[in-house]
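ESCALATION

Customer reports they have been waiting on this structure for their group meeting. Please prioritize. Original submission:
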Amino acid sequence: MRKNGNYDLGKDGLWFLTLHLALPTALAQAVNVLYAIVDRMFIGHIAGYGDMALAGVGIAAPITTLISSFAVLIGMGGAPIMAMKEGHGEHESAESILSTAFYLLLAASAILTPLAFIFRHPILMAFGASEMTLPYASEYLGWYVLGTPFALLASGLNSYVINQGQSKKGMVSVLIGAALNIILDPIFIFIFGMGVKGAAIATVISQMASAAIVIGVLISHNAQIRLRFHSFDRSRIAKILTFGLSPFIIIATDSALMIVLNSVLQRYGGPERGDMLITCSTIIQSYHLLVMNPLGGITAGCQGLVSYNYGAGDSARVRGSIRRVQVVATAYTVVMFLLTILGSKAFASFFTPDESIQFTAARYMIIFESMIIPLSFQYTNVDMMTALGQVRFSLPLSLERKIVFFISTLLLPAITVADAAFFAEPICDLIAGAVSSLIMWKELPKILRQREEKGFRL
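Update from on-call: job pushed to the front of the queue and completed.
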């Protein structure tokens, strides 16, 4: 039934596979968020300057996420192709894709690390830093980007572990890294007195550990598809990047739009309220990551299941898998919506002792997350279209949501007050969920029928 401890994506029960692939990946993503959240929790409680430091790290955070989105480009770009090739019986091609992705991640690190380090000051000022928050933002970002190679390898290669049915091993790599970060943060920040710099260094060390574990899993003899360092193939680069473009845009533009949100809050909030609103935004964005990253883990964790069966030509298993992923994703967002209503103020209190900031952050957190249930359909539809190789649908659907968010973020504060920017998220979530569901309902039968009639082409 299983080979080398992996799940049989073509024969095991669909509910069994969906839950065993989705839940560990979702948990791994939830734990992965702790890298950012734990940093911010400790930083917000630094005596004397915690609120300003938290705002500074909040301004730097979307930039670090933007850098990490290149791991998504290469990881979620190549991993579904690898699974399709394996499902179609092309084992050597699957291994070649994995090796090519490894070298692409190294190349991306070599380009992004010096660029982010050298230009961090003007970037931060352009994206919402004030004279008060710039020193903290710059210090955190400067140390964080030095660990870019480890961050990209840990996150990018983890997709290749998950997409060959080893979701538990992928989860373990993230759990160990996050646990190490939780241990090191208070030591570096408070005991060694390193403040914001200590939080960044703790994160880099933790990412080094995660990267080492993931590489160890992929080069081991128990890996069904092994990382072989000599199998780089330039001809596969374009296909990997094309497949990864849609999830990359989701993550990259999420980061870019959070930067826009911070800039708008600073501009329309003015000297009196700008930094305070950015502090609230940092707390809200932290919670949003805690909601959205596991949702993405549910859908991305099951991409290999859909890709494998699409490559194998089993349309019934493809349809059944997509339906089950949607059920799990929707159930998750219902639970998180209820938790948001009940626990938003308690969550905000982890970041700051200031009750006025807690109240404001909690109020807008509920508004920000009010349409996450419709958003579960957007995540499922986009990631399943990517798993089927249908970038012509997944990419426009990703862009459509971002465009709506961008327009809403700019217009609402301009015609009302700065705080209205927090309403942009539920507006775009509702529209995106409806549009993507309509596209999936109309196009999925055509996609599967074409696969049955014309065979597998990639």
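Sent to customer with the following note: The chain has one domain: 14-454.
Escalation resolved.
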